[in-house]
Structure formats: C-alpha cells, structure tokens
Amino acid sequence: MTEFRSVKGKVAIVTGSARGIGKGIAETLASEGVNVVMADKLPLVKESFDEIKEKYPEIDGFAVELDVSDEAAIKDLVEKTVEKFGKLDIMANNAGMHLETGNVWETEEAQIDKIIGVNFKGIFFGCKYAAKQMMKQKSGSIVNTGSFFGKVGHAGSATYGASKGAVHTMTQALALEMAPYNVNVNALCPGLAASEMHWAFVEADAKERGITFDEMKEVELNEIPLHRYGYGHDYAGAIMWLASQSGSYCTGQLININGGLDFT
Hints:
It is built from 8 helices and 7 strands, in the order E-H-E-H-E-H-E-H-E-H-E-H-H-H-E. By secondary structure, the protein is an alpha/beta fold.
C-alpha cells in the first residue's frame, strides 16, 4: 500500500472502546498498524486492549479507565499518549450514552445533565485537548461520533438528539478553526449499530410492541437497505480514510454510515 492510503505507524485514541463499536474501531485500526490508546469508564477496557495487543503484537498502546465528562481525565489521557508516542494522529471521540427520558415534559434535569455531560462535553473535551496537540504538530484528524438522531428530531429522544446535534455543529466550527493547522475534523453519523446501547433500544421496542427481541431486530433490518447492522470496522474504515492522505481534503462533514437507512 502506498502512503496515500496508509495509516501504519499512526497513533490513535479511541474513547468508549471497552466493547461494541469502540472496541471494533480500535481493533480494526490496530489491524492496519495503528498504535491504539483505548479509554472507557468500564474496567473491561484493559482486558479489551490486552486482547487486541495479543492479536496484533506489533502495535503499541495502553488502556485507561476514565469518565469522558471529566475534563482533567481527558487532558491527562492526551498528555500521557503524547508522552509515550510523541504525537497524536487520530482522536476518535466515540464514547456516548443514552437514557430513556421519555417526552420533553417527562425529562428530569439530572437526565439532561448526564446525557449532555457524556455525549457533548465528553466529545468537546476530547476535541479540545486533541486540538491543542495537533495545532503544535500541524497535522492530525479528529473524528466525532454523531448520529442521524442529531439531524432530525425523534419523539422520546429530544435530549439525546440535542446532544448529538450539538456535536455536529461543534464539529463544523472546530473544522474551520483547525483548517489553518492542516487538521481535519469530521463526525460520523451511524444508523443502527450492533452495540450494547442499541440492543437496549431493541429490547424496549420489542416489549412495547409485544414481540420478541429477534422479531424486533428483523423489523429494523427490513428498514435498512443493506439489511445489516453497522459494526466497528464499518466506522473504522471511514476513520482511517479521514486520517490518511486520501481523506485529508474532507473536513467539517457529517458522514452517514448507516447502510442507506437515512440520507439527511
């Protein structure tokens, strides 16, 4: 592979990577020779890193247990990464959460604070400290996890959608701010992903409809033109493209990776 598409030797931080989509992203990056630093609130993140390291012993990295809504923890994460590798090429702000908040008039302030704290502030802090380092390097790629729920409102998900909409506009603002430093900033907008968070949605919807979990999954799959859920490697493919020379002209974009579920 030429340097035009290669990401070998780059350094990436992936938040929310103990399991599911984040772990899939980290593992796929490692398979292409990217050194990965994995962060998550779940202690499982350390075991997940060990599994990836065993499978791809040529890469380096480490795992950190942290809460992305803790600004000091994110600052320390970036500093430790740069201390070890001397650079940061990819910041994949993937950590996110969802709470069943009901309608707007049913939503509690504590629920709003929790969702905004993780989904917006957590990504904001990742962007803030990655940007500081990448400005010095005059290189790098920041990729935030948005959502098609952040593009169009969905009943019962006002707070979650608002948190992702905030990520989208912040991503575009940062893209303009970082353009003079040769850093691109984009957001990926997944549709229905094969993740623990999404399975909770499926279980709730199945219960409400009075059908089984598997029957609810089939209902969803029939709404996706490619008839499958998204996996970590699907999102990692876009992250690697954006971080390579081949994707370096793409910035400020909200990129749908959803099997054709949504075109907005």
